Input
Amino acid sequence: MLPAAHTIERKLPIFSEGHHASHIYLVRSGLIKTYKQPDHDHVQIINIVSAGDVLGVSALSRDIYQESAATLTRSVVHKIPRAAFLEFMLKRPEVAVMLIRMMNQEFARVHSLIVDLGTKKALPRVASCLLLFMEKQIGSGKLEPFYLPISRQEMGAFLGLSPETVSRQLKGLANAKIIRLDHKRLTVVNLDQLRSVAGKF
Output
């Protein structure tokens, strides 16, 4: 049985890199970023997680968190003591298998991001990012409005681009009528074209 759910308001920390890993978090709703902060002035977003994802999995092999996590939107999580989670995994091997699959998917996603940063130009990176946000919020095939959960600066940190470059690429996609953007409210107008720009056919 899962522990009671906790509601965490937007833009609040959940755990910090290097701190004792006391809990594992199952995300019930909302959007949460995981990130590393090598110094006071720089933040590198690693991933954006949503309902059904597990936070803090990397801490299962060590007793400290390997990254930081903070809410992007109002989020609901189940906070599971790390020791209880490990014991549950021993009793339920299928849970361990599920987590291994999740970690493999995360490794593949991070590897894809590294390849994108090294080989893709700015526009495909931004298009790929929009597809990720779309999938996390409304599903990959729906043409419904959704919100950009991070600022242009944070998106730049995620994609290895300047905020100005991110803004130019968003404006270009809007001018091409691939997306419609009203502040942070975004609608994909032509999904096939957005996928083509991102290199995801």
Q: What stands out?
A: The radius of gyration is 18 Å.
